[in-house]
Each structure stands twice: as C-alpha cells, then as structure tokens.
Amino acid sequence: MVQIPAGKFWMGRAYTIYTDSADLVPIGKMDDRPANNIDLDAFYVDKYEVTNTDYAKFLQSAGTSTKPPWHWPQGKIEAGKEKLPVYNVNWFEATAYCKWAGKRLPTEAEWEKAARGGLDRNHYAWGDADYIDTSEKYLQAPQGAGRANPDEPIPARLEGTDAMPVGSLKPNGYGLYDIIGNVREWVNDWYDADYYVFMPKRNPQGPETGRYRGVRGGGWQDYSANTIGGPSDNNTVDTRDFSDPDLRATTIGFRCAK
C-alpha cells in the first residue's frame, strides 16, 4: 500500500472544458462542481487494483459465501489473466473483500486525492496536457489507438478485448498504478449529484443514504477522444460517476484503502 499524506487538496473541477461549438456547451455533468478545498487525514491506498489472483484467495478463504465473477470459466481464473484486475464484482462484494483483507473501500475524497498524485487542480492524472501522446502512457487505448507504455504497442490479443495486467502502464505522482484507466473503481460513498454544494470540508464520508454508490476513474473502454482532441472525459481525476451497488460490470473493479 501507499501512504497518501495528510493535508488539503482541491476536490472537484476547478474549470470547465467546453466543446468546440459556437455555443460553448460544457462537456459532461455538473456534479463535480463547485470545487472544494478538502482537508484529509493521512491514509493508505493499494498501489494496484485488486487482481483476479487476489480475489481468488478471498473466495477460497473459510467463511465466505461470495461466488466467483460470472465470466470465470467453471468458477476459475482464465489462464493468463491472473494479474488482470478483477471485475464483474458488485459494491457489496468489493466491500466484503476489503473487510476480509483488513481494509475498506476508499471514500470518494480519498480516491480523488490519491488519483491527483500530489498535483494541484489537475484535470488528468498526468497534469493538464490534454493530448493522446501523453495520456497513452497512462491509459490502455483499445483498437491500437496508442501504446500501452512508451515503447511497447498493446499486444494484438488484448486490443479492444479486455483490461491489462495491473502495473502495465505508468504510475501517477504517488506511485499508484491504473488509477485512471484499466478498470473503473468502486468507492465507499453513496452518490448525490448535489453533494459538492454542502459537503463537509474535513474528511467527508459522502451522503448518509442514497440509491447509487460512487464509481471513479476511467476504464479500459473509456479510450475515445473528446471533442477537443484529448482523452475521454471519463478518464479525468475529477469526473464523478455512479452505479447501482448490485451491478456487476466488465469495466468496474476496485482497490482498497485503510
């Protein structure tokens, strides 16, 4: 795990990206505004997303009734995919894994501070350089749109078909791998589109109740360029998303915190 230092950071979108239309319509939802100066205690977060191998150990442990992800053949990891991030895991199953491991899911505020990598008001994990030739070092780009890392093309067998082994791409400033890209990640918080208007400024834990749980970070299918030529807006450190906590999706995994 990696320790994220205590202190303040700006959470939320500090500025708006616009389309190239004459009307200058903002891209995306408005739920990541206003930006708030949030003070967090120090915490730890996993360096990598939880892998299939990690999750299999949890399933094999005594006392768990959790079933394997539905896409595992005969309930076992497909050969060669041991180091891929686990997905098709719902919020409850992710929470159960973290508890078994002596950890927990990160709060939405913790996730965003960790994703920013020590940078201030950055829109992407690598800063604000909104270009594919920068983002491809951090993101998987299916269909061969870029490279998996600066020197090695994405293997043909992986193009557009699956996530990649954890740690395949460049880490952010805190040394966290795949915090943007590979799979999107569950966070602990309930989701409220208006939460940033009234959120506490110290150690926010999210709304007390809700229908959906938060999901953060772009996944391996979020590679499309946005209208101004940069990577998908889903691949930003400030974009918020949500899902039904019962949802199992091929693009959603998780990492733990404590």
Structural summary, described in words:
The protein is α+β, with helices and mostly antiparallel strands and 258 residues long. The protein has one domain: Alpha-Beta Complex (paralog of FGE (formylglycine-generating enzyme)), CATH 3.90.1580.10. It has 5 helices and 8 strands. Strands 7-6-5-8 form a 4-stranded mixed beta sheet. The radius of gyration is 18 Å and the shape is globular.
In terms of topology, how is this protein built?
Blueprint: E1 2-4, E2 7-11, E3 36-40, E4 43-45, H1 52-60, H2 91-100, H3 108-116, H4 132-135, E5 184-190, H5 195-198, E6 213-216, E7 240-243, E8 252-253
Parallel strand pairs: 5-8
Antiparallel strand pairs: 1-4, 2-3, 5-6, 6-7
Rg (C-alpha, Å): 18 Å
Low-confidence spans:
17-27, 130-136, 140-158, 224-231
Q: Which architecture does the CATH hierarchy give at level 2?
A: Alpha-Beta Complex
Note the quaternary state here.
Answer: single chain
Mean pLDDT: 81
How many structural domains in the coordinates? 1
Approximate shape:
globular
Cα distance spanning the termini: 9 Å
Helix/strand-derived category reads alpha+beta
Provide the spatial order of strands within the biggest beta sheet.
7-6-5-8
Helix content: 10-25%
Question: Can you summarize the main beta sheet?
Answer: 4 strands, mixed
Query: Beta-strand percentage?
Result: 5-15%
